[in-house]
Amino acid sequence: MMFDNVVDPLEKLELIDALQRLGLSYYFEDEIKKTLKNISINLSSNVAWKKDNLYATSLEFRLLRQHGYEVNQDVFTSFMDKDGNIKASFTHDCKGLLNLYEASYHLVEGETMLENARELAAKLLKQCLKQNNDQYLSMLVEHALELPLHWRMLRLEARWFIDAYEKNKDKNPIILELAILDYNIVQAMHQEDLRYASVWWKDLGIAERLTFARDRLMENFLWSVGIIGAPQFGRGRRTQTKVNALITYIDDVYDVYGTMDELELFTDAVERWDINATQKLPNYMKLCYHALHNSINDMAFHTLKEQGIDVLPFLKNLARWYYIGYKPNLQEYIDNAWISISAPVLLGHAYLETNHVTKEGLQTFEEYHPNIIRWSSTVLRLANDLATSSYEVKRGDIPKSIQCYMHETGRSEEEAREHIKKLIDAA
């Protein structure tokens, strides 16, 4: 009904954008898909509403690309001069520049026009902040320059955007009221999920016995909310938190505590997936192995019971990809980093918990696993290095990408960080 009352294409796009940023899009999935499909079909016709409108063109481009539609970067040609710069007539269009900047983060390899447009838009937006008197627009610009929308965690973005949207003179008060109510309801669901995870973690007893490792259940849960924040995926968040917590502990065993002989025995036990293979392990490793083994089997049991699909072989493969693939070799850091960050394991579990599982789906996931997962895993690994590498090296962890680059090139840490940021953009 809400979409039926909106006729103008730009207003429909603005509505979709607001619903997404407020965390309400899951209520309107069918309407959003239908609207974007119609806009995509009429991409080259009925263009009067977006002609010479940088804001409308950029918003359309971003939303269509975000939802998997093909849109050529050439739609921005009319806004660029012969030297590749943004035309002077658009250099003071703060709203248009902001949306161009956000749209540029949906570029694909080789789209140099958008790469250049991002740099130009960022510089012009900084000038806009000095001259703009619109509080709402200024908030959006500052927010985007700090971290683009495409890189933000949706649930945290929803909380921030609720406060920002209140200052929008053109806001829809009904949507805003729904967003506030929905946020509180979903927050209560998340709190219940966290309560469940806390009880599970305490009963497991690992944190009390293995005090050398990081006890970060809250961070593990927050990460799960970032991946699976929608209310209907409560079990997915709980499972994801379990997997993440176990990986964090076992990762510390590999990185800073276990001896090479112990690690080889542990890796062999995971490869064989046999309780009897743990007989030669020290007690602390037996505890880790049994926690991993029992948790994986329990997850497989629930999927078998509820969906009739045996996913245990798939889950065991996820564990093997991680532990067998771990090779702390500095020169091969990047090649191995996408596995050592454990994203294949985490994303594999996320897939199982948010989709109706079929044998064909599992086969496709395993066949195309490197291509689907590798680049997102690389981004996660490198972004994690930017945030935590100094702390991890101090506690005896292996060198991260920043230290590897500094060692190989003799560059400063600041230069190394800039290089890693470029690698993230490229990935």
Automatic annotation (TrEMBL):
<dbReference type="Pfam" id="PF03936">
    <property type="entry name" value="Terpene_synth_C"/>
</dbReference>
<dbReference type="InterPro" id="IPR044814">
    <property type="entry name" value="Terpene_cyclase_plant_C1"/>
</dbReference>
<dbReference type="GO" id="GO:0000287">
    <property type="term" value="F:magnesium ion binding"/>
</dbReference>
<dbReference type="InterPro" id="IPR001906">
    <property type="entry name" value="Terpene_synth_N"/>
</dbReference>
<dbReference type="InterPro" id="IPR034741">
    <property type="entry name" value="Terpene_cyclase-like_1_C"/>
</dbReference>
<protein>
    <recommendedName>
        <fullName>(+)-delta-cadinene synthase</fullName>
    </recommendedName>
</protein>
<feature type="coiled-coil region">
    <location>
        <begin position="107"/>
        <end position="134"/>
    </location>
</feature>
<dbReference type="GO" id="GO:0016102">
    <property type="term" value="P:diterpenoid biosynthetic process"/>
</dbReference>
<dbReference type="InterPro" id="IPR008949">
    <property type="entry name" value="Isoprenoid_synthase_dom_sf"/>
</dbReference>
<keyword id="KW-0479">Metal-binding</keyword>
<dbReference type="Pfam" id="PF01397">
    <property type="entry name" value="Terpene_synth"/>
</dbReference>
<keyword id="KW-0460">Magnesium</keyword>
<feature type="domain" description="Terpene synthase metal-binding">
    <location>
        <begin position="202"/>
        <end position="426"/>
    </location>
</feature>
<dbReference type="GO" id="GO:0010333">
    <property type="term" value="F:terpene synthase activity"/>
</dbReference>
<dbReference type="InterPro" id="IPR005630">
    <property type="entry name" value="Terpene_synthase_metal-bd"/>
</dbReference>
<feature type="domain" description="Terpene synthase N-terminal">
    <location>
        <begin position="7"/>
        <end position="145"/>
    </location>
</feature>
<dbReference type="InterPro" id="IPR036965">
    <property type="entry name" value="Terpene_synth_N_sf"/>
</dbReference>
<keyword id="KW-0456">Lyase</keyword>
<dbReference type="InterPro" id="IPR008930">
    <property type="entry name" value="Terpenoid_cyclase/PrenylTrfase"/>
</dbReference>
<keyword id="KW-0175">Coiled coil</keyword>
<dbReference type="InterPro" id="IPR050148">
    <property type="entry name" value="Terpene_synthase-like"/>
</dbReference>
